[in-house]
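Dear support,

Our group has been running a series of protein-ligand predictions, and this particular one with adenosine-5'-triphosphate is the one our PI (initials K.S.) wants archived with full inputs and outputs. We had some confusion internally about which version of the output was final, so please treat the block below as the authoritative record. The input we submitted was:
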Amino acid sequence: MGQPAVDATKSFAHTGWHAYSAEDTCRLLDVPFAVGLEPDEAARRLALHGSNAIVSARARGPLRMLLAQFTDFMVLLLLAAAILAAFLGEPQDIVAIIAIVVLNGVLGFVQEYRAERAMAALQALAAPIARVRRGGDTRTIPAADLVPGDVVWLEAGSLVPADLRLVEAARLKIEEAALTGESHAVEKSTTPLTAPDLPLSERRNMAYKGTMVTYGRGAGVVATTGMQTELGRIASLLRDEVEVRTPLQRRLTRLGQRLSVAVIVLCAVIFGIGLLRGEEPGLMFLTALSLAVAGIPEALPAVVTISLALGARKMLKQNALIRRLPAVETLGSVTYICSDKTGTLTQNRMQVEAFHVGDKLVREPPAADQEKPWSLLLAGLALNNDAVREVNGDAEGDPTEVALLLAAAHAGREKAELEARFPRLGEIPFSSERARMTTLHRLATGIVAFTKGAPERVLEGCFNRLTESGPASLDRLAILAATDEMARNGQRVLAIAYRSLPELPADLSPDEIEVDQTFLGLIGLLDPPRPEARESVALCKSAGIHVVMITGDHPATAGVIARTLGIARATDRIMTGQELARLSPEEFEHRITDIRVYARVEPEQKIKIVKALQDRGECVAMTGDGVNDAPALRRADIGVAMGRGGTDVAREAAHMVLLDDNFATIVGAVREGRRIYDNLRKFVKYSLTTGVGEIWPLFLAPLLGLPIPLLPIHILWINLVTDGLPGLTLAAERSEAGVMQRPPRPPRESLFAHGLWQHVVWVGLLMGSVTLGAQAWAYSTGSAHWQSITFTVMALSQMAHVLAIRSERVSLLRQGLWSNRSLLGAVVLTFALQMATLYLPALNAVFKTQPLTVPELVLSLLLSTLVFVAVEIEKAVRRRADRRSLSTAATGMDLGKEQR
Ligand code: ATP
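Confirmed final output from the archive:
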């Protein structure tokens, strides 16, 4: 294939692909439509045209990220002051201060870089894919690898992966709001259009990157890719995306601002008092500034991003792919999980279990299946089917269709053979709303149309039925009763019917074709529940989360599965889509809490359910896989799409994608979300308490007639090193015992709820008092080491504190030191570093410390464990309170709370 033809893509880009016939397009792009590009030609074109990606300008390089660590105003001020101090005669200070600031910056950078990489990896995984024909084979490739000339397939739910000139379009409808602003789907065709300068919305034979196929099927040849596409052109105009902040980040930023003001005021006061007491102004200024750098929690929002991103990476290992970071935070608040049935709660491994033909229910087609209803029914199952038989004998496609295809094959009806004899001439595709599909095939004598789908829908179009003894009258009620009975055995029931036509109608509208049909029979498929789903449903109950099943299937089938899984009791009512449609939003909201199963629901109705639940203040996770699920997924607090079975459009709208389509994965993600939130709280608790603990002694010492307890370098060291290292490892803490035995966190609950504020204040005060006490005692005994003792007590108190707050309730003695090894490692390392500041002569000079004697060291150690003991007592008190409230609940006084 020659170079010139490919270069044609450049000159034709944006001008007039729609004005060429499909054949000319393929010729110009040098691709045989039936075969597609050869793989090596595709590779060559990829090198020539580049990746089919929209380039974002926001990606920050590592260098910019590193520099950003040092551009905080207070840090810059501190560095400036240190330089000034150096000129005024304290040159060694500046080296130490810079070293600590750099160390802290590098630590922050490493964390942020890891988080950014984790997010980039998640985004790469969430990237769209495309079905292409290359070298005669159909395969799925990352959409980014598409090149001009690729032959691409589209189906309902696909996101168009590049700009395509359509070559096939079977009732193909595309919603182009992303480009044209028009939210109604446009019906596409393949006919050439003459006017070269049509607006985009009228180029009916083109499909544009980023738009959504809402209905039908189609195929086209890629005309342009990446930034050359229409979407790429817009994207290059609006490159700057806005950064999304999670609600928690926003709250923490606001809190940070308020705390900063408070800290600055306090530091100013400390500076003033120092001056009044006759301290040296330069030193006092540096002290106040160090304290401000230490006390201002400017890093909190960044810490949130980092822990959420790293949490998202961990969730990926458990098959939950997070597409939007705030979802990690919201997961902990979920109170309702509304789940599809097929594939999420069931295994999606369908098998045909029974046939109902004539008036007989049989497990297998009879040997003499050449007779009329059977031969037509089996042919219909093979022909009215989009699954494809594979070489190894299996089949690929929608599991319902796969099961039907294999059942037909088992009875000797191979789709490929039948299709060769009776080619498909047209179709009315399946959609959940229609709950049926029709295909039209050529016969020697005319045309046959097969329709299969939900029995009540198929029956609407039937006027008689075919039995072994010929056509007979149709008893709809009897067939519906047979359907009910099969459904009560847990079967998913489909009906099939046919109709002969003299010729192919010009208009393939359902009203014209799915009428005057002859009913052939019912097919019952079994799709066993997932074994792990039952356990997950039980776990949800104990975690105060309601599980609701929403399905397009028959109420009886849905009921059986829901009861097997423990979602509903035998007495619970099942609401159908029809009933739901009749209720006003107010009436529905009133009844919603009683409904655990919705059946024969159309995807559009899911949004009504989400809204009603949200109006009641619930936090809703909702699953979905089709195009029409997208609005509900977007609206839900956590929209959950399927990674295997779902459509691109659903994935695009979702906050989270289940790579294994499994209900249990949602519950696992909720648990993980709760753990991550708990650990964030621990981090905030830890770093704020340290801040408070440092401010108190510096504030009080002068008032008590003592010298400044800590030098600037000590303050920075404690805050940026001894505080920083172990703090980060709190994120690795395992989930609290009983995370899934407590009610969900209210979404608006403050981060400081459950006594966090009080803890920060009183433990900070305690830490400060112990430090001050140590200083007062050492100073009064005339010890030359009083400042080294004060510094050590303060630093070691941090270690004691971090060990004690690993759990909100459980004692460290029960948790065991080893259960968070990275934290233990950080504590040991920090302890060693602290000892180094005391016992390495080189560091003595920098930190102005002296080696402590053994009794002094032991005393410092003992004093710092006071914090540990105090926090352990706090936890014990909390455990007692919990036990008490549990026993009151058990005696029935607090039943309401229990049930949540
Ligand atoms: P869930 O909503 O839990 O995934 P579902 O698969 O039954 O359940 P839909 O996919 O909306 O939901 O299908 C609705 C109904 O349409 C099904 O119950 C079935 O009767 C019918 N149906 C499903 N797949 C096909 C198909 N490939 N061809 C014809 N009819 C189908």
